Amino acid sequence: MKQHHNRRHFIGSLAGGAAVAIAPQSTRPTTTSGPEPDLVVVNANVHTVDSRNSRAEAFAVKGDRFVAVGSTSDMRALAGKNTQMYDAKQMAIVPGFIDCHNHAPGTTLLYEVLVGNPYEVEFVTISSIVEKLRARAKETPPGTWVDGYFFDDTKVKDKRELDASDLDEVSLDHPVVVRHRGGHTSYYNHKALEMAGITKNTPNPPGGTYDRNKAGDLTGRVTDLARSAIDRVGIRRTFTPEQREQRDRDGLAFISKQFVRYGLTSVHHEGGNLRALQDVRARGELLHRVSFEISGNVLESMITSGIATGFGDEWIRFGATSEHTVDGSFSERTMALSKPYPGVQPAYQGNITTTQTDLNTWVERVHRAGIQINCHANGDVAIDMMLAAVERAQKLFPRADARPKITHCTLVNDDLIRRMKALNAVPALFTSYAYYNTDKFVFYGEDLMKRSMAFRSLLDAGIHATAGSDFSPGPFATLMGIQGMVTRTGWDGKTWGANQRVSVDEALQINTLNGAYASFEENIKGSITAGKLADFVVLSDDLHNVDKERIKDIIIVRTVVGGNTVYQV
Ligand SMILES: [Zn+2]
Asked: Residue range 293-306: average pLDDT?
């Protein structure tokens, strides 16, 4: 019975493989001479994420594509004398992971002082932060900024707020700032506050605060728009254009290594240096595939020159726009809610950062240009505004299969889900938050968390929900994300919105095939299917068999992109 089952898969796969030969020139893999595969993987526990044959033991790769998927014996039979054999020893293999929202700050990771752990839950001490910054201050001329990155206020061992006096210990001669990984709050030393002329009597500007303690003194914590007055003063390290290019290149090459270390084979980048990206690729150091999402001048030049979504190739392709911001943040509690934030006085409903009219204009223009819309919309109010703008644009200029992308799409309700389905919207929800950021869910409460990061509700409605880590704010480790989607339990053992749990298989599909769908690439990647790009990950343990609380600890044994091993332990 098993034999017959596998045989059928094998034949089906070969039929799929034949399609490769007639693929257009641009997508045809480069193959070695002869009919035999370059690589045959056997004795594996393959989860293909292909609904036609979800399990397999083995597969064959030729050039950069899978050419057959099936049983170990059938795949062995395909091997020739030049075929490389890989015995997976019953380890699990899944398609390469896809992150649909990532700010990819490679230069920060490579060159800046990291006062928190970008990748994992790790508690740090305030003294460790001070020490790291002090070392940087020693090599920095007085008056020039000393910056710390990846701070998380809920991951501090001292169990108190970092404050200006702590940062005075770094230096009294340098302005010092520690930036929260969420991107909306910063902590300054007194020197920085003084240089900006901020005193305890300075009123808060619109859209921000200079936080004060009970005695009325400045704490050093400054939020949102209030930061700009401080960030304007002092001397910044400067770089020549050549140095900047070099930093961008090296930063991208560095983060590419980190992505594949965590099993990511495709990442949607929020902007970045396109030229540096191409240089890194040319020097053979781009290890993951990029869906390039842009705004500003590059988006303008796409529109004016007629470049639509999909332009590019399997390594670097123009995807949706980058996130067009409609409201505030989830982790820093400024997203736009239809009802006031629980327990906040005076009543506060978050920030809307555009008008419906401006949003309509932007959406219509981008939509007409054949470019995939992508809006940052967290709260239900913002999601409603975005959907209204897309509904309007579709009415005026109907376009089939536009797949408007909703970045974050955090808080939903039945009506929003129905409208998303009607538009075939692709939401990219926070993934690692359900494990990493449960210490912040208490600000929303269980009632809202039942409708937040609502993977269950979206999948049940037939929506292609995808994974968007939002790195830097969220770690991009896909296995951490999957654990959170499956358990809805955080590092602190607390469970929120258990009604939104999904199965391991669903979580896998969200992080692979659905991600490919979000960039219109479901026919070339996202599953282990003959004819698709050979992007896959070898795992030390099967996600289905380990304790659900240990999924994040599974070791990425090997990451393969286009048939090439780009990472191994
Ligand atoms: Zn973002």
From this structure: 96
Encoding tokens for residue 32? 């070695």
> Sign of torsion, CA 35 40 46 49?
negative
User: Positive or negative CA dihedral for 248, 123, 151, 477?
Assistant: positive
Two structure tokens written together for 276: 């540096």
Alpha-carbon gap, residue 153 to 302, rounded angstroms:
39
As a whole number of angstroms, the distance between CA 175 and CA 161 comes to 19
For residue 99, report the distance from its CA to the centre of ligand 1, in Å. Answer: 12
Residues forming a β-bridge with 485: none
Residue 15: how many other CB atoms lie within 10 Å: 12
pLDDT digits (tens, 9 = 90+) for 502-546: 999 999 999 999 999 999 999 999 999 999 999 999 999 999 999
In the block, tokens 């980190």 appear at: 258
Q: What is the pLDDT of residue 24?
A: 33
**What pLDDT, on a 0 to 100 scale, did the predictor assign at position 39?**
97
CB contact at 8 A, 359 and 350: no
Residue by residue, DSSP assigns 82-115 as: TPEEEE-TT-EEEEPEEEEEE---HHHHHHSEE-
In this prediction the pTM is 0.92
**Closest CA relative to residue 210, chosen from 221, 196, 194, 197:** 221
C-alpha of residue 323 to centroid of ligand 1, in Å: 7
What kind and span of H or E run contains 318?
strand 316-321
Distance 433 CA to ligand 1 centre (A): 13
Distances (CA, A) of 259 to 215, 251, 273, 286: 46, 12, 18, 10
Its sign, for the CA torsion 330, 333, 335, 340, is positive
Helix (H) or strand (E) holding 303: helix 296-305
Mean pLDDT within 432-457: 96
What is the distance, to the nearest Å, from the Cα of residue 182 to the centroid of all Cα atoms in its chain? 13
Q: Is 42 helix (H, G, I), strand (E, B) or coil?
A: strand
Report the residue count for the chain: 569
Alpha carbon of 374 to ligand 1 centroid (Å): 11
* Ligand 1 centre distance from Cα of residue 102 (Å): 7
Residues 6+ apart with CB under 8 A from 295: 271, 321, 322, 324
Please give the Cα distance from 42 to 74 (Å, whole number). 10
